[in-house]
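Summarise this fold before class:
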Amino acid sequence: MAASTPPTAVGHPGPSGLAPAIAAYLMWGFLPLYLLLVKAVPPFEFVGWRIIWTLPLCLLIVALRRQFPELLAALKSPRAMLALLASAMLIGINWFIYVWAIMEGQVYAASIGYYLNPLINVLLGTLFLGEKLSRRQWLAVGVAGVAVAFLAAGALTSLWISLSLAFSFAFYGLVRKQVSVGSLPGLTIESAILLLPASAVALWYASGPQGSSFGQDTFLSIAIILSGVVTAVPLLLFAVAARRMDYSALGFIQYLAPTIVFILGLTVFRQPLEPAKLLCFVLIWIAVGIFVYDLLAKRRSSRKAAAA
């Protein structure tokens, strides 16, 4: 999935953030359909091209949004650059595993990974940020843990995909929460950090027997170029939504993406839903329901307190 950083503070609720939030998660949800267009490209090579074409688009958007001062401030901060080096490696791993999983037909495993991600975010917040979990949140994490146990028992070969996606993106968010760099400038720097290895990967494939996937076919080359768009645009929409919406409301909408991926797995990719995976989904949906209910309950309590 495309990179995104969880908002570090609760924003002012407003309907104006709903449309960009839905648009961002719709794009992330339907990303597997785009990956069908570039299925002829080896996953590792595609991730290389994705980074290469994301950077110029990010720089263009940074220029349009006049965010170069923020970008330069991050470049001058050793602490920020160290954190962005770590987050760049994490998001690079996340992108590769996700692209590989979809191209190899492991659609349900990818969906489970992003269902688990918010629950793992909550757990990491407790372990590393000193945040407190409510009883309902502990219950949600516990139910998700049982779901993972069932998946390990019945679908062990795909468990690593779900856990790798969930933990790499969760730790990515954890690292990014430690630095005050905006979502778009952060992605721009991360893409710049990854540009050298991405270019090396593209050159390695170009020098191989099959040659580079870029430039051999016009349609495929255009689809590869669009990888920059499908990476940067939903991120920009997400950044707009994060400033205008409640964190709880945004947290609820984020489940739209893995739900769409799950439906695509059933319909477009026609992946068989094994009993272990079905049970895992049922338990995760229960955990998500508990988690969302807790968010909404806290939101109502906050509004009552503010009104009082």
